[in-house]
Amino acid sequence: EGYLNSPTGNISYPNNITILNFVDFLLVPTLVYELEYPRTEKIRPWYVFEKAMAIFGTFFLLYINTEQYIIPALPNASTSFLNCTGLFAGRFVQVANVRSLLTRSLFQRFADREFYDDWWNSTTWEEFARKWNKPVHHFLLRHVYRYSIESYKLSKRDATFMTFFLSSLIHELVMVVVSKKIRMYLFFFQMLQLPLIAMSKLKVIKDNKWFGNAFFWFGLFLGPPLLGILYCRE
Question: Which of 137, 138, 143, 171 is catalytic?
């Protein structure tokens, strides 16, 4: 019944099936459909302007760093900025994602702006997966993890594997489109989080949070640069 009525009671199924409601879902910065979303009372123009300028500033810094430090170090001197940012698509999206979501939420008066949590304090990769991209996490939690358990009667362990498998496959598909090569590096590294999550349940890590956080940051410092090297070396 919770899926058929909005929390405020203003919208109920099937009255939500309209073009306007569909367009609204396309515009709001979320991947999970709800009958009604929390809204702020008004748009703050100067605050929106500030965040929009922050997005342009982020892209400008990315362009400068790519042109000055990354492209000159690549073996192919004809590599362009667009091609280079395409090869680093995952990092590129992470840089701009939060700011663009925030700006869209401001234009839409979208009140739920918890797009990430304190992922930098993560002591396990499982915690990082929950915190670093909450819109995607909520989508996978509802439409993959819970659906696998409720509809296909999978165990929690199998549903977790299916969730990571599908997420890894989609991420690798993006890299296939960008690089025009099937290499499966990103897929392998993302699936590698499953044994790392199992390792995080060891007593030495559970009892020493600082060690878990250090282990997490070691993987974060090592993984993305290694992925960049693997995709750019061919």
Answer: 171
